[in-house]
Amino acid sequence: MFLFNTLTRKIEKFQPLQNSVVTFYTCGPTVYDYTHLGHMRTYVNNDLLRRTLTYLGFQVKHVMNITDVGHLTGDDDTGEDKIEKGARKAGKTVWEIAEFYTNFFLKTITELNILLPQVFCRATQHIQEMIDLIKILEKKGFTYETKEAVYFDTCNFAGYGKLGGQNLKEKLPGAREEVYVDKEKKHPTDFALWFKRVGRFANHTLHWDSPWGDGFPGWHIECSAMSMKYLGQTIDIHAGGVDHIPVHHENEIAQSEAATGQPFVRFWFHNHFLMVNNQKMSKSLGNIYTIEDIKKRTLEPLAIRYQFLQSHYRSVMNFTWESAKAAQEGFRRLKNLVSNLHEKNNETSKSQLSVKAKKYEQEFKRIIANDLQIPQGISLAWAMLRDKNLPPHERLSLILDFDQVFGLGLERLTLENIPQSVINLAEERKNARQVKDYLKADRIREKIETLGYLIEDLSDNRYRIRKKFRTGQSAF
Length: 476
Ligand code: AMP
Ligand code: ZN
Fold this sequence. Notes:
Blueprint: E1 2-5, E2 10-13, E3 21-26, H1 37-55, E4 59-66, H2 82-90, H3 94-111, E5 119-122, H4 127-139, E6 143-145, E7 149-152, E8 191-196, E9 215-217, H5 221-231, E10 235-241, H6 245-260, E11 265-271, E12 274-276, E13 279-280, H7 291-296, H8 301-308, E14 317-318, H9 321-344, H10 355-368, H11 374-385, H12 392-406, H13 420-434, H14 438-450, E15 453-457, E16 463-467, E17 469-470, E18 473-474
Helix pairs in contact: 2-3, 4-5, 4-6, 5-6, 8-9, 9-12, 10-11, 10-12, 11-12, 13-14
Bound molecules: adenosine monophosphate (AMP) and zinc ion.
Zinc ion binds near residues 27, 223 and 248.
């Protein structure tokens, strides 16, 4: 696998630190408003990376955080806490706001067929881990305290700026207009590890006791604390949007490496923006669309996923309703083709693929392992589906195989028109096979056959069901 690494600005060969297990952390959403398609472009691409790694034989340990405290409206410690602001505006509690928008986020990613991480962790449930980390930084002399906050002293960390290639001196005090400045803050790049519940934050609803007084954590420390807790001091891949490079991720590196003396992340994976009329899709610009807007226009969420698959993660992508409609049309044609192949398919797929089919499989692997060239993967899939020299059952087999990476839910199409009772039996059989109860699995297979259906086993304990007889003709 080859991946572009923001840290080295090069495409490098990727190999996990321990054998075949990949430790993968994704910066999750700040849950103060409806998650929009801009966020989803990032999360779909993170999902494509995870699926690709799995497809290529790695085992991925995936952690994602939920930011429910400490993310201020300005990334540079200015403004107010986004959740507190959202709660005030809606006349709800901060907990209600966080829960409501977390649920909306979960619903959205499920509709886009994004795999759930094995660990979903909330900042508010990891306050102690953050305090412990700040204590280490304090002990090692990387912090200073003002009346308002505890700051990380960026001038004291030699590698500061290495991710975004920034020079500290370019960010001298006064270099930018800040809405609010703590007069005792020494350098604009210094960032809050802990905010005290005083001054502008005197009425902050979320607050915890700490060695530096009652208050709440700064935004960046949560990702370091949770990444280390669940994945270890050095992880393989950390993902997020490109807007996180200069502040959030730079700060994560500084505080983590200052605390442990170890590299924090080996590969930084950054996704470029989804734009609308040449501007980043973002709440502050008022140009956002959510998954509900998609459905209101009778487009399918998975058609939007299909649309995202057509742009490489490192290029800017423009969103228009025309392109969304075109993606819907392309997705409809793809689904029709797969359904037709399934209908026509009279053969059980052979355990051995033909030489030609194998070539397609190898080419697909090569493409996706080359810094995730998913758009090329989609082109290859279409060329393969239109290749009349390839028997239908092989085309079907290959597209379902590729779809383990695309995540377009194409396998579900092969279950359409199959009675629910048969699907239930197939699921029961799948569970039996999982616990290696092959006797039971065989009994269920026979039952399925007596109902007139054939079940075929695929890799990863997946299966396909087909009608046993077609218009008076045996399937064999
Ligand atoms: P936030 O909730 O603001 O922390 O954003 C969640 C994730 O979505 C981050 O990784 C952002 O970089 C990413 N993101 C936000 N807006 C966009 C956009 N317009 N296009 C792509 N990614 C975005
Ligand atoms: Zn983060």
